[in-house]
Amino acid sequence: MFALRRVTHNVVTRSRCMSTATEATFDLTGSFDTYKLDSAPENTVTATRDELMDHFKLMYTMRRMEITCDNEYKARNIRGFCHLYDGQEAVATGINAALTVEDSWITSYRCHCVALARGGSVSEVLGELFGFKDGLTKAKGGSMHFYNKAHNFYGGQGIVGAQVPVGAGLAFANKYNTPPGDDMPVAIACYGDGAANQGQIWESANMAMLWKLPMIFCIENNQYGMGTSIDRHSSHSEYYKMGNHIPGIKMDGMNILAVKEGMRFVKEYCAKGNGPMYVEMSTYRYHGHSMSDPGTTYRNRDEIANTRSTRDPLEFLKKTMIDAGFSDAEELKKMEKEIRKEVQEEVKKAKQSSPPGIEDLHTFVYSKDGTKENDEIQPFIRMPDYAKSIVA
Amino acid sequence: MTTSLRTISTQATKHKRMNLFTAINSALDVALATDDSTIVFGEDVAFGGVFRCTNGLNERYGDERVFSSPLTEQGIAGFAIGYAAMGGTAIAEIQFADYIFPALDQLVNEAAKFRYRSGNQWNCGGLTIRAPCGAVGHGGHYHSQSPESYFTNTPGLRVVMPRSPITAKGLLLASIRCPDPVIFFEPKVLYRSAVEDVPEGDYELELGKAEVIKEGADVTVVGWGAQVYVLEKACEMAAKEGISCELIDLQSLLPWDVDTVAASVEKTGKLVISHEAPITSGFAAEVSSTIQEQCFFSLEAPIQRICGYDTPFPLLFEKVYVPDELRNFEAIKSVVEYSK
To answer: Cβ contacts (< 8 Å) between A290 and chain B: which residues?
Structure first.
């Protein structure tokens, strides 16, 4: 349905058995559906070999990381709840490519790959999942709660839909802090089709439109809200139209180039003060909702296998690069092998760390009192005082 | 632990080995069979629910009576209140008690006040909210909370938490048929691990009544839900030291059985209360305060509250956070020492 056709390519050098074109133009006709918009993303986009290679490296690292999480969870090295993102890599990678680090990003509990895109390393992500002190959130958050202040990544939320009003606040802050007339940094709130009918999202949409906030409502439509398919949980499943009079755009979430170009368009729209936009990414998750869900009681195994063989975002990118003359199957296979090894190294590195001490239980409940250290217990928090125990 | 069934509305003579989720399923089945207006709904309920509590009910009673709702807790609660206000029996499931907070406004401001504010013209007594609660070993912030004390501070609601399959089925049927809205918390860690021979038919247990599980003379130990098993272990450890504990399961938190606990404390003079929820303003504060008022002269030691610490429920530090049997054993010993 969303076909990508190479239009032209420039062959610059030829070395050994690889053709190394450096730039090509790709056709994105049919990748976008718009709603209440006068303009639309471009139908063709130019990309360089280096750009696509970077995307491939990130996406493949994401894929290997999620598969590693699956294995480590089954080996009981990761405890708690774990929601995997494999299948949806193009969405996070494309958004990350189109936005800058000044733009605020907030998402749901399915956040491992966004953490990776926004400044986290595989060892920091795995370290957090293992509950070690060198994890991204110092082992206080776990799988659902990754954050990165330096990269404006606001997490990582447990409650479905709760990130959207917070996203509206982030957008408001961005608008507030930008001199009038300048382009504003945007705020993007990602949530799933299951969350799309939460009341607080309608509330946020109203505020965003009323105050013309630079906010992107990004629905990652993977067809299922936990165990319930969209036609059984949503009376209206054209999510990009759900903003009512807020314009919307639907894009193929399995096509990294479409996501990137689409998000470039959306960012420009919002940054210029036109108000919010609804974005729907058509995507799919291979795993169940979480590691506690096999994902096959409400889905056909054929459907999962079929998606893997016809719409996989990594295979799509590989084919695109080969067709454009950017690379060949052999080079890509070599890169995959290298990345596999890198991820394994990162996991080993993560495992060298250890859990934090027990004193971390009560740190950061409240803010630092000016006269006390961060990790001293606030007087009104009741904690055990073994010295005062009256047991003989 | 044996249970004495105090009230049986229908003699149930056949028993079947059931775990907690099967017992809940059985109660829902009876409710659907005996009251045509009963509807059971919530997120993912139709395929059996994430904890299997609604297994097979959609097949037996159809889409109009047992169905999945969209992901919208506030909507689920409000919708259930409306149906109950028209006289129907609404059994709404909140998938995890941690998710109940969007519904807090509906439950506190609509459900609890419906009868009062309408001068008894309307009520939503047919409403029962079921929510799995409590620590499960790896739940972290949002799959482990025990939010009962947000609701016990709301007159107009009833709050119930069973400890076992037999009590769960009986209390759930009583809650469903109770003419007041009930928040029914199910300790999720017990869904598979608690197994008993449960009567197969229709029976109820009395709401608002605590149960003395074990009689004793030295210390009164009070808990509810899964914590009762932790306290049982602490009492066994105490028994080895020659301390005889009286273990009470409150079963209902709002209203709670003050008389049973007071009578026990008048006998023992010492009280230990334990729950997973954080200690500040947890339900133990209510029990402690009331018993202090009623049994002041009988008390021989300060009342002990052994609860979760005042932090968000941690993933990594869960084992330290939860009030385990060792902490409770220490509390039992300390009140005995104090009273000497």
So the answer is: none
